[in-house]
Design brief:
The protein has one helix and 18 strands. The protein is mainly β. The protein has one domain: Porin (Beta Barrel), CATH 2.40.160. The radius of gyration is 20 Å and the shape is globular.
């Protein structure tokens, strides 16, 4: 298949880059405040430097644009708006919907009696929307985050972009910081693979899945961070696969079985803040079981960045 690079995705990326540069100039012109908010009164677990959940009580809005390439289906481009609200230091919610600005799914063009499939370019196709509720708490030895997610069937399952039903995920995240290192582990259960992975995969597996993850975040200079995680997604019941690709084990609307949805591998991510409102992200995912490589980059623009502690100028 001849792979075509996304076009409209680059337009979104250029727009956000312009916003980032404009925001950087505005920050340089601002005088430093004499006092900063008490950031110790809130937590921000597992939301990352590009997370939309605000650090203090109130709302936040973010917009993420991502271009990625996977070895089974080529290039795709996503635009994801997200709205979040923090009630207090323990509870917060957010909702988002991914929009595939460009993707080439493997779609059925024949009849039910004589099915035929071909790759067909799609634009502005939504994926499944998500609503997340979070509870987070801090202890001297460990930080804990519980995330409960409901997925809404807004994505087209015939394109491999949705589960075709309301789905759920419950995930437990535990971490502890040692100087620049923050090791973490995750254990959860869901009935949709799209609610588990941080990378858009070329398929959606629908059925009860157990998910496990372990790794560490490394703090880098200039407020950047590097995250490396190993993961396992294990089917606990029979599953159905809705896929964007006709290659490999993940077929379009594959018949149910217990093994096809299993996946394991590792994910790496580098977050580099361009300024307090904008974060540049690069990522790479390797699926060891399915032999799929996914790499890409994105830009996230935050309406309300997290407060930072700075030394008062005299």
């Amino acid at each position: 298949m001849i792979l075509t690079r996304p076009r409209t995705g680059w337009l979104s990326l250029m727009l956000l880059t312009g916003l980032a540069l404009h925001g950087a100039g505005g920050l340089q012109a601002q005088a430093r405040p004499s006092a900063e908010p008490d950031v110790d009164q809130v937590l921000d677990l597992d939301t990352g430097t590009n997370g939309t959940v605000p650090a203090t009580k109130g709302y936040n809005v973010s917009l993420n644009t991502t271009s990625q390439h996977d070895s089974s289906n080529g290039w795709s481009s996503l635009l994801t708006p997200d709205f979040a609200y923090r009630f207090n230091r323990h509870f917060s919610v957010d909702a988002d919907i991914p929009i595939y600005i460009y993707i080439v799914p493997y779609v059925q063009t024949g009849t039910a009696a004589k099915p035929a499939y071909k790759y067909e370019e799609k634009n502005h196709a939504p994926g499944d929307a998500e609503i997340n509720g979070r509870f987070e708490t801090h202890h001297e030895s460990l930080d804990y985050l519980l995330t409960a997610t409901m997925g809404l069937p807004t994505g087209n399952r015939n394109y491999g972009l949705g589960a075709g039903q309301v789905t759920y995920s419950v995930n437990n995240h535990i971490e502890h910081s040692f100087d620049i290192f923050t090791p973490d582990i995750e254990v959860g259960v869901s009935d949709s693979s799209s609610l588990v992975s941080s990378v858009a995969k070329p398929y959606v597996a629908v059925g009860t899945l157990g998910n496990f993850q372990a790794g560490t975040v490394v703090d880098l200079p200039l407020h950047a961070s590097f995250d490396a995680e190993a993961y396992e997604e294990l089917p606990l019941t029979k599953t159905i696969i809705y896929s964007t690709t006709g290659k490999g084990k993940k077929k379009v609307t594959t018949a149910t079985n217990e093994g096809a949805a299993e996946d394991n591998g590792f994910t790496t991510e580098l977050d580099v803040p361009l300024n307090r409102h904008t974060v540049l992200t690069g990522f790479y995912n390797r699926s060891l079981r399915n032999k799929i490589d996914t790499a890409g980059f994105g830009i996230t623009f935050l309406l309300k960045p997290a407060p930072v502690q700075r030394t008062e100028e005299r």
